[in-house]
């Protein structure tokens, strides 16, 4: 086959690129060949500059689509198509990083109805799905986590769940980074070490939060009758909140020891079979519902309840937030939709 480049093996001769193609010239025409070579080299530089410009423009557009830059890209459609089969479309387009972007999780954390759902999803990913995250999904995950921490620092609410999320993530990373030589995590180890430093910094900022007592001239919780206070306590779904509430004043402390309150809390989170396995009796022969609750909390997961969740349409395979529309809404107003839990969300995108 013909040699298309400069032939360094042929002394006294050189190859130059002209409009008609590559030509071999002798030393006699060396001046002409040098001029031709310079002109060709200048044209190649122009072509390379244009090519690099196009590639840079495409990369910026791709980064905007993948939410890799500080300026987020907002999609018009707030839904994502999820195909259950193992196809190229599922492996290429329907990814966890793309779902973070298209479902607009950065805006979802600003909604109080969706905040706990997103936090629980981030916690599940931190526990078991970190090695399966792509580079794009990692950046989106950390961007969302950073905005969650910033929201908590600004609002001074939901401090404990976020501190637990950061602790879970840090412990998982410590274990995984030790196996970095085995290609457990995607990316450079220095990048993950930097992220771990950020997590420690966020934890320190959350520890330094000083929650100020709100200045209110209206009625407080302790001003209500005891029956109304108990009614409000029955709306709490976390036993740790009841314990914290009982530490506010002696009167509230006595109310939080109500046996019926802890009994309903146990029945809300755990099944009858689980309760029968963990029965604890007092000296007077009564069931110790409070002790049973914390004992079962260490053995069984709590029941999850969210004000707003993602929904999946079995008719068109679209995943969307409840208050947003999807393509088959017009033809099928009722929709074959079902609520998707955080664990169900991970299962949809787990390959």
Task: Give the CA-based shape.
Answer: elongated
Compressed to H and E, one letter per element, the order equals EEHEHHHHHHHHHHHHHEEEH
In helices, the fraction of residues equals 40-55%
The neighbouring-strand order within the major sheet is: 3-5-4-6
The low-pLDDT segments are: 27-34, 67-75, 88-92
| End-to-end separation | 46 Å
How does the helix and strand content classify structurally? alpha+beta
Largest sheet: 4 strands, antiparallel
Number of strands: 6
> Roughly how many Å is the radius of gyration?
31 Å
Kindly estimate the percentage of residues that lie in beta strands according to DSSP. Answer: 5-15%
Average pLDDT across residues? 76
User: If helices are DSSP runs of H or I spanning 4 or more residues, what is the number of helices?
Assistant: 15
How are the secondary structure elements laid out?
Layout: E1 13-18, E2 21-26, H1 30-66, E3 79-81, H2 88-92, H3 96-102, H4 105-108, H5 112-129, H6 135-155, H7 159-177, H8 189-207, H9 226-233, H10 239-246, H11 250-255, H12 259-269, H13 272-277, H14 289-297, E4 310-313, E5 318-321, E6 337-340, H15 342-348
Antiparallel strand pairs: 1-2, 3-5, 4-5, 4-6
Overview features:
single chain; 351 residues; alpha+beta; 6 strands; 53% helix
């Amino acid at each position: 086959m013909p040699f298309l480049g400069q032939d360094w093996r042929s002394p006294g001769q050189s190859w130059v690129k002209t409009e008609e193609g590559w030509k071999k010239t002798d030393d006699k025409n060396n001046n002409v060949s040098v001029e031709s070579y310079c002109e060709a080299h200048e044209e190649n530089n122009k072509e390379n500059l244009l090519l690099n410009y196009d590639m840079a423009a495409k990369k910026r557009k791709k980064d905007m689509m993948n939410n890799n830059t500080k300026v987020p890209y907002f999609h018009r459609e707030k839904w994502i198509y999820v195909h259950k089969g193992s196809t190229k479309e599922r492996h290429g387009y329907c990814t966890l990083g793309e779902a973070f972007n298209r479902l607009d999780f950065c805006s979802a954390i600003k909604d109080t109805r969706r905040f706990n759902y997103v936090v629980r999803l981030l916690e599940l990913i931190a526990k078991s799905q970190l090695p399966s995250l792509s580079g794009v999904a990692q950046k989106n995950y950390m961007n969302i986590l950073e905005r969650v921490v910033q929201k908590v620092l600004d609002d001074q609410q939901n401090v404990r769940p976020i501190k637990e999320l950061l602790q879970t993530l840090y412990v998982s990373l410590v274990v995984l980074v030790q196996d970095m030589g085995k290609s457990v995590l995607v990316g450079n180890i220095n990048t993950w070490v930097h992220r771990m430093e950020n997590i420690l910094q966020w934890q320190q900022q959350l520890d330094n939060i000083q929650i100020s007592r709100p200045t209110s001239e209206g009625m407080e919780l302790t001003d209500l009758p005891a029956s109304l206070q108990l009614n409000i306590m029955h709306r709490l779904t976390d036993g740790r909140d009841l314990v914290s509430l009982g530490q506010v004043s002696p009167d509230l402390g006595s109310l939080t020891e109500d046996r019926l309150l802890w009994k309903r809390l146990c029945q809300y989170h755990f099944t009858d079979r689980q309760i029968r396995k963990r029965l604890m009796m007092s000296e007077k022969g009564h069931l110790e519902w409070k002790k049973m609750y914390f004992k079962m909390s260490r053995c069984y997961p709590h029941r999850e309840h969210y004000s707003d969740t993602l929904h999946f349409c079995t008719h068109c395979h679209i995943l969307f937030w409840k208050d947003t529309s999807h393509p088959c809404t017009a033809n099928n107003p009722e929709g074959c939709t079902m609520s998707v839990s955080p664990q169900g969300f991970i299962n949809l995108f787990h390959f």
